[in-house]
User: Fold this.
Amino acid sequence: MSKIELLVGDIAPHFPTLEFIKGQPISAFESGRIYVLECWAPWCRPCIDAIPHISKLQKKYPKISFIGVAVWEANINDVHQVVSDMGDQMDYRVAYNTIEVNEKEGDVPRNWLRPAGEEGIPTAFIIEQTGKIAWFGHPNEIDTVLEKLINNEFDIVEAAQVYCEYLEKNLIRERKDLYRVLDRLQSDNDIHSAIKVCEEAFIENIRLEQFMGIEKLNLLIRSNKCVEALSYSKHLIENIEQNDIISFENVGSSIVNTVYQNTEIEEWFSLLNYAIGILIDLDQLTVSSDNYYLKFRITRSLALALLAIQQPQEALEYVELGLEYAIKSGFPKDNQDLYTDLISLCKKQISIDQVKIENDTKVICDSSGCRLK
Assistant:
């Protein structure tokens, strides 16, 4: 099993090799100061979406040094372009993680992201006043820790203990190991072996299926195992606790998102209908919820599924509802535009269906009246 080498409570790695693009350059972590090292890239849409929130935090906590570090980016001009386009919306230090000759990536992925077990971005690291890692994760979830640090209410020893318990309880190491194997097999297009690896891992650790069952389901769908995918979907649903709405939504939405491009295969309709049933139940259960992001995901998946089974009128109702949720949840305008595009797609399909109905009718109506064909 691979080791997650950088943990909460550890001394932060050496200050990375950076070329600053915006703000006063920094070359080392000073004792007594708090730093936020936020990893992003110009091509990463979630990273761009997180920029206004980071700017808001920098304004709220001027004594904290926020540094947006562009990683996995070979072209520094693309970084400059984003900084220019964002203007005051990106109101904190921005730097480029220099990639040395004969290296594929900079020292931030090598010394920070990978040792922490973080394979994706955006990822933010908080370095507290004594130079230790206080927290790392998605920058949109950073607020509480920063407030505790500023108010001297943060206990680094307790945070380290809580993080280790989190790793064990949620099988983080085991999941990351399995993800690495699955990524390698899928890159080789060896889906059959990937399914087998999942099954063997679940036998070895039955709790792992709770977290990784969705991966096996997606693999079954990708390998066109329609009957097995439906059966396994039901197995996953039966083993979810009744109040775990997030897990129910994950199964329903995963089915829709993976199947959406395969609707020409008639066998998929039974699986899509099963997912629609799950999502409709969730839509009713969350009517009074103020978790608009969850409601957005549910309605979006319902709309895609209904479009796939040629029910554009019903899909349109969910798309329009989903757009309301997207606005209420504070989604960036680009994401809202995707929803308006989906509305147009629904209306186009409705128009096509209406033409088909009119062409199939046995009555012809014009200015002179109506008559049988």
The longest strand covers residues 35-40. The chain has two domains: 10-154, 243-372.
